[in-house]
Amino acid sequence: MAVDYTLYLVTDSTPEILGDRCLADVVESGIKGGVTVVQYRNKTADTAELVREASTLHEITRRHGVPLIINDRIDVAIAIGAEGVHVGQDDMDLQAVQRILRTSLPNAIIGVSTSSVEEALTAARNGATYLGIGTVFATSTKKDTKSIIGAIGVQKILTELRSNSLNTPCVCIGGVNASNVQQILRQSRHDDVALDGVAVVSAIMAAPNPSEASQNLRNLIAALPAISRTQSLGLMQITNLSFVPDYIAAVVQRKPLCHNMINTVVQTMAANMAIAIGGSPIMSGNGAEAADLAKLGGSLVINMGTVTPDSLDQYVKAISAYNAAGNPVLLDPVGCGATELRKEALQTVLTAGLFDVIKGNEGEIATIAGTSAQQHGVDSAPSNLTLRQKAIMVEEVAKRCGGCVVVMSGAVDIVSDGYQTVFVRNGHEYMGLVTGSGCCLGTVIAAFLAVHRENKLLATLAALLLYEIAAEQATTKEAIRGPGSFLPAWIDTLYQIAQSPESDQSWIKGGKVEVFQHSR
Ligand SMILES: Nc1ncnc2c1ncn2[C@@H]1O[C@H](COP(=O)(O)OP(=O)(O)OP(=O)(O)O)[C@@H](O)[C@H]1O
Ligand SMILES: Cc1ncsc1CCO
Questions:
Q1: Domains and their CATH numbers in the chain
Q2: Which of 170, 211, 370, 520 has the largest CB neighbor count within 10 A?
Q3: CB distance 305 to ligand 2 below 6 Å
Q4: Helices (H), 166-226
Q5: Which ligand is in closest contact with the Cα of 266?
Q6: Nearest CA, atom 8, ligand 2
Q7: Across the strands, what pairs with 86?
């Protein structure tokens, strides 16, 4: 039987999720809305109840032509003649399951939960019918947060499987809901590698109308744009910078909320820069208010510059809240390669959710790429890499975080969405002499992301050009004698350009953007 894994429902009979509703009604409603596979999961019922409930569900799923898979209990699957079973890493091992089912349910689907490349390769090589990859996000239905792997973890597993010629279908599981389903499907993609579907629990089981919730998820999945080279921008569009003034004008007009969880060094400077370019900053380090702030339609900056154990917890909460609301998140992994604690914090943040932009200096991006030597603080150290090597690194990191734009700042900035990579040769050396010039760039890009969601690469490029050309212009002012007098002049110039980006477009002619070409 060819199984459609697009929308895989895992049941939950606990009072917190199911409430006092009838399990069979909720499942049938979900199927009517578009659920394509059902897994019956009940960790507490006794065997008689499991068999009773499973056979009631089986009547419904059969009527709708949807496979029913039983979690863990192979005996229950055999008793009711279910289409399959699903086992976790702590349940009976795959080969034992196969031996048992060979005679009683020879065509059974056998799914296996996996949270690492090793587990996935082993299960696929041993003949699992499909893999459930997770946990993607922290979720109230799964308390064990050790196995949270984020989109990057899912992508890593998928890529390893496919590069080993293992085509086992894969669904991801863990905290998937309507606000993040497109992101997880998009961000776990890498070239032609993609998930076959998503597994959800509470997004359907706890929904007031499970049918509508399922239909909504199916619509979101169907609406997902295919990411391919042909879909990314034409080179003309990138080097023709006439879009930039329009992008700026829209930011000024919309005044997006810029929620900054930013280091304690640059709070005021970042807030002033956000105001100068037309944003509305709020510097809040309290993750508990992130869900309310996310409702206001702005974007979030996670800047790890002065990370502490408490602030790390707050970042994780805020990232989940913004992902759930479907609002953009920018990560600035300041100094992430400087200490062991920062390296660990980086991993926690990277697996806490999804990012639209990751911006860092060379040492920071190299740490994410896994190629960095020891960083000596928060500033960039002189590099041994050629521009070409840096560009390839930025592109690789962007590919790995599918759907994410990566910016490596420096004298020449490199921006990539994994498909197209550009060099930006604007800016001034005084920028490198002002602490937080990288951090504030994150704040400015995030403001643009809030308004220009349809194209993150263009939004990032517009923000970067405004930021750097303003800096260049500021240095030409008479009173500028060094980085100290430069900073207020830079904020003034940002403000002046942002207020009338369209009336005088001559400034954008100073944009120095070049497309990186692999063949050169
Ligand atoms: N020598 C330079 N010439 C032109 N622009 C520069 C130069 N140095 C830095 N910049 C610009 O300054 C901004 C910040 O980049 P940088 O790489 O210094 O960030 P950073 O090291 O993260 O800074 P911080 O940690 O102080 O926030 C970017 O827009 C970058 O293009
Ligand atoms: C100097 C400094 N230390 C931690 S964050 C920060 C600001 C620049 O990244």
A1: 7-227 (3.20.20.70), 249-515 (3.40.1190.20)
A2: 170
A3: yes
A4: 181-187, 202-205, 210-223
A5: 2
A6: 436
A7: 71, 111
**What is the CA(321)–ligand 1 centre distance, in A?**
30
Q: 48 by DSSP, 3-state: which?
A: helix
Whole-angstrom Cα Rg for the chain: 25
Distance, CA 120 to ligand 1 centroid (Å)?
41
439 catalytic, yes or no?
Answer: yes
Residue 336 banded pLDDT, cuts 50, 70, 90 = very high
Protein residue with least CA distance to atom 9, ligand 1: 432
* Single pTM value for the model: 0.73
pLDDT tens, residue by residue, 52-76: 999 999 999 999 999 999 999 999 9
Give pLDDT, residue 228: 43
User: For 159-187, what is the mean pLDDT?
Assistant: 91
Q: Once rounded to an integer, what is the mean pLDDT over residues 355-366?
A: 95
Q: Is the dihedral of CA 500, 504, 505, 511 positive or negative?
A: negative
Give 507-512's long-range contacts (Cβ < 8 A, gap of 24+).
Answer: 507/469, 507/473, 508/241, 508/242, 508/244, 508/245, 508/465, 508/469, 510/426, 510/469, 510/472, 511/241, 511/244, 511/424, 511/426, 511/465, 511/469, 512/424, 512/425, 512/426
Q: Is the CB of 306 under 6 A from ligand 2?
A: yes
pLDDT, position 141: 57
Q: Is the CB of 433 under 6 A from ligand 1?
A: no
